[in-house]
Amino acid sequence: MTAFFEGIQYLFVNILFIPLDFLRHLERITWFGANTINWIFMIICACAIVYWIKQLRIFDAAGTENQDTTAHSFLK
């Protein structure tokens, strides 16, 4: 059973964390390079929020959104 858990440890530490180790070593060279993944995720989230707000405005302008407080049975 010990070999099984050591195999899991080897998989995660030595194989699956290689990209994260690369980013850790890259931080010593350039901060912006090491944080590119964070910047990419922030840009994706900002685009998603803008898209969501545009869709909310479209449905609000069309009047199709039910804003009644009894729209759901659990609010009655």
From TrEMBL:
Protein name from the UniProt record: Uracil phosphoribosyltransferase
Organism: Flavobacterium psychroterrae
Transmembrane segments: 29-53
One Pfam family recorded for the sequence: DUF6341
InterPro entries in UniProt: DUF6341
UniProt GO MF annotations: glycosyltransferase activity
Domain of life, per lineage: Bacteria
Keywords, sorted A to Z: Glycosyltransferase, Membrane, Transferase, Transmembrane, Transmembrane helix
